[in-house]
Amino acid sequence: ADITAEAGRMTRLVDDMLTLALADAEAPPARTPVDLSVVMHDVRGRAERSEITVDVDANGPAVVLGDAAALSQVAWILIDNAAKHGAGPISISVEQRAGAAILEVADAGPGIPADQVERVFDRFHRADPMRSPAGAGLGLAIARDIVEAHGGTIRAENRRPGAAFAFALPLAG
Q1: What residues have CB less than 8 Å from 44, skipping those under 6 apart?
Q2: Positive or negative: CA dihedral 58, 168, 84, 43
Q3: pLDDT averaged over consecutive 10-residue blocks of the chain (173 residues)?
Q4: Which one of 7, 16, 42, 164 counts the least CB within 10 Å of its CB?
Q5: What SS3 class is residue 121?
Q6: Cis upstream peptide for 89 (omega within 30°)
Q7: Alpha carbon distance 151, 51 (integer Å)
Q8: Do residues 122 and 133 lie in contact, with contact meaning Cβ atoms separated by under 8 Å?
Q9: In angstroms, rounded to a whole number, what is the distance separating the alpha carbons of residues 117 and 130?
Q10: 3-class SS string, 131-167
Q11: Phi-psi domain of 5 (left: phi exceeds 0; alpha: psi -120 through 50; beta: other)
């Protein structure tokens, strides 16, 4: 069981490193219409299969141009991060604002240490390795690289309670 678990961890690490290498090569993502509301519901289903409860709030379609699989990966990274480092309830929402589609994941956990908020998207950064020894600190770096390759922005902030991570992409059209 230990060998199987370690093999799985190493496979995820290699996959993450490959994703980062591809991002460094600056290969442009596919540009097809993607509705972030659909991405949100797909990721919610994946979360439920992983026994993670996620509340959904969609305010209609929010169509961007991009790679659906890559944007789904970003949403999953944010959900997985909230599940590992935050606390329920976890929520995911999509909205349109000022010409952008915004997908946000929030939790009610302890939040991000104030001195770490600006660093959470750095490669290999782990705010508190003792609190959660799993992971190599690559997930949020991958999320940032994917979002920026799509011409968007990503941010993290503390709330009372918890933390919120959101990315914004230009609306298609």
Answers
A1: 54, 56, 92
A2: positive
A3: 75 65 65 93 90 87 92 92 89 94 94 83 59 62 90 94 95 88
A4: 7
A5: coil
A6: yes
A7: 32
A8: no
A9: 18
A10: CCCCCCCCHHHHHHHHHHHCCCEEEEEECCCCEEEEE
A11: alpha
Non-local (6+) Cβ contacts of 142 within 8 A are 16, 19, 20, 23, 73, 74, 77
Two tokens at 104?
């946000």
**29 phi and psi, to 5 degrees?**
-70, 160
DSSP of 25-82: TTPPPP-EEEEHHHHHHHHHHHHHHTT--EEEEE-S--EEEE-HHHHHHHHHHHHHHH
Residues 6+ apart with CB under 8 A from 79: 43, 46, 47, 52, 54, 90, 92, 105
Task: Report yes or no: 73 and 90 within 8 Å, Cβ to Cβ.
Answer: no
Q: First CA to last CA across the chain, in angstroms?
A: 50
Estimate to the nearest angstrom the gap between the alpha carbon of 72 and the chain centroid: 8
pTM for this one?
A: 0.79
